[in-house]
């Protein structure tokens, strides 16, 4: 079976990649399988820059093909924040609950019709001696006024999907993984790069 290495330490992302990719007969590995690799500093100003850096760093180290996901929540009413800074929005500790509280505080006076936003995922495919490829996916929603649901990770409890009348954290993993920004980026990857390795 083919192995696919993802340059991420995020357990929520890893579970989602596994659920989507194992159905295609791929074995999914991640940075958790390579604990000796030093932290990859995400100092880019775009999802694409950070995804490229994560994928290329690990691809060089392993001398094989690697993909990386850089993603985040883009909220219109606050100029696209937290955006590329989503993981550490409320500080270096990377706390999901502190990040959510900060976003809700910033949106406290924003009326429901202006609370639009989207999750964005950029996947970089890095291969030794070849140009890195970039695939993007997004998922539209609105920002709830309080957290609801306990599935998923990150900002899922405040990301409301009007058509389903549920937050992303109230969806099952199957429901999330057919509509999420990550699922959509992977659809683009497989549409363009069926034999990705
Ligand atoms: O860099 P890696 O190791 O992949 O893990 P990370 O958590 O630092 O990942 P990012 O740098 O891409 O930051 C993405 C952040 O955006 C948020 N996020 C991304 N995808 C999400 C999702 O599907 N649901 C909820 N929040 C998400 C969440 O806060 C993530 O920590
Ligand atoms: Mg990160």
From TrEMBL:
GO terms for molecular function: ITP diphosphatase activity. It holds the Pfam family Ham1p_like. Its cofactor is Mg(2+). Transmembrane segments: none annotated. The active site is at residue 70. Binds 1 Mg(2+) ion per subunit. Keywords: Hydrolase, Magnesium, Metal-binding, Nucleotide metabolism, Nucleotide-binding. It catalyses: ITP + H2O = IMP + diphosphate + H(+); XTP + H2O = XMP + diphosphate + H(+); dITP + H2O = dIMP + diphosphate + H(+). Pyrophosphatase that catalyzes the hydrolysis of nucleoside triphosphates to their monophosphate derivatives, with a high preference for the non-canonical purine nucleotides XTP (xanthosine triphosphate), dITP (deoxyinosine triphosphate) and ITP. Seems to function as a house-cleaning enzyme that removes non-canonical purine nucleotides from the nucleotide pool, thus preventing their incorporation into DNA/RNA and avoiding chromosomal lesions. This is dITP/XTP pyrophosphatase. It comes from Halalkalibacter kiskunsagensis.
């Amino acid at each position: 079976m083919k192995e696919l290495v993802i340059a991420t330490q995020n357990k929520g992302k890893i579970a989602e990649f596994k659920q989507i990719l194992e159905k295609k007969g791929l074995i999914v590995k991640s940075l958790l399988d390579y604990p000796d690799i030093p932290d990859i500093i995400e100092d880019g100003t775009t999802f694409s820059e950070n995804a490229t850096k994560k994928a290329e760093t690990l691809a060089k180290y392993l001398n094989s093909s690697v993909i990386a996901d850089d993603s985040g929540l883009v909220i219109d009413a606050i100029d696209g924040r937290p955006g590329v800074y989503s993981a550490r929005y409320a500080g270096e500790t990377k706390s999901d609950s502190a990040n959510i509280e900060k976003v809700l505080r910033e949106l406290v006076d924003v009326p429901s019709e202006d609370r639009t936003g989207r999750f964005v995922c950029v996947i970089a495919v890095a291969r030794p001696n070849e140009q890195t490829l970039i695939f993007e996916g997004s998922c539209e929603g609105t920002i709830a006024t309080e957290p609801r649901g306990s599935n998923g990770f990150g900002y899922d409890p405040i990301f409301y999907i009007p058509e389903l009348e549920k937050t992303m954290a109230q969806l099952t993993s199957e429901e999330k993984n057919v509509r999420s920004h990550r699922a959509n980026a992977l659809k683009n990857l497989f549409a363009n790069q069926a034999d990705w390795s």
